[in-house]
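Standup notes, structure subgroup. Blocker cleared on the nicotinamide-adenine-dinucleotide input:
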Amino acid sequence: MIRKILITGGCGFIGSNFLNIMVPKHKNIKFHNIDKLTYAGKIKNLNKIRNSNNYSFSKLDICNFKKVNKVIKKFKPNIIVHFAAESHVDNSIISPGEFIKTNIDGTYNILRSMNKKIFLIHISTDEVFGHVIKNKSFNEKTKYNPRSPYSASKASADHLVSAWNNTYDFKSTIINCCNNFGPYQDREKFVPVIIKRILQKKNIPIYGDGKQKREWIFVNDFISSLEFIIFKNLIKENFIIGSGIRFENKALTKKIISLFEKNLKFNCKKSKLIRVKDRLGHDREYKVDCSKIKKLGWKSKTNFDKDLLETINFYKKKN
Ligand SMILES: NC(=O)c1ccc[n+]([C@@H]2O[C@H](COP(=O)([O-])OP(=O)(O)OC[C@H]3O[C@@H](n4cnc5c(N)ncnc54)[C@H](O)[C@@H]3O)[C@@H](O)[C@H]2O)c1
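Run returned:
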């Protein structure tokens, strides 16, 4: 029986959405969140649940082994969902050091504080597979080919988790997900940046030719896949999660503008797309094949226009 779930990075984008959904839904489970509260983590993301009886929080850096070890030993979770990471590719290009520390050392600290009874769900990205070659989707057997400091640090962490499964018979599962969108994402990321620029009636910067293609899943939908994995007890696995919904960056920007204009009657004339210097080593395309989890019964429910509109309304209200 699942009694306790420890979350790392629960004040960030995906972690806070996870807690906002799971804490009220599973009142018989205790959730403990550990988060360093970097620029990307905000306590206020959890305003809805922070006073719940089944939720608690420790401000803690996963790079501090002694403290991580103490919290895990004291809380005794059945499950750890490990979201904490430095997650912005652009930052990883400018200062990779923090990514190496948090994403690799931090994951090592989680692993060495665990035992064989704990089910670790390690959250990772489709970017570990590099970019699409010859139109072939990534699946669970695709060879790793990380091409940015961010994806290399995530790939390293994935390899550590696999090694602990193999060597010490740990029961961890690795999840490689495509791009998420939704509320509570830091304003430096692609979708919030576009929405913010439109709301401010400013031009929208587009990297290079804007033809980089990504797959997009609504964050609640991704969380439903994690809930599925948790309650089906899918241990010692790896899963790719996606929605099948893919857009070039420029096309997604235009989509957001059209939702603003048609659904919100917002005048976007002042927000022109402006080409800026491309990101160094920018991957052209990601595309995932998640038939493995589909065969087990999980299906993406992302309703792109509706979920994107909900996301836009969230940032509009915040503005
Ligand atoms: N956002 C996406 O589209 C996406 C897609 C696939 C995978 N992922 C992965 O999902 C996870 C969560 O991503 P996100 O977008 O929510 O990231 P985020 O940057 O919004 O949040 C990261 C959280 O981790 C915390 N954190 C950072 N360093 C820490 C440390 N040393 N100790 C403790 N806490 C620390 C931050 O304070 C923040 O709350 C990451 O592992 C990321 O690689 C994200």
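Discussed briefly. The first strand starts at residue 4 and ends at 8.
Next: hand off to the docking folks.
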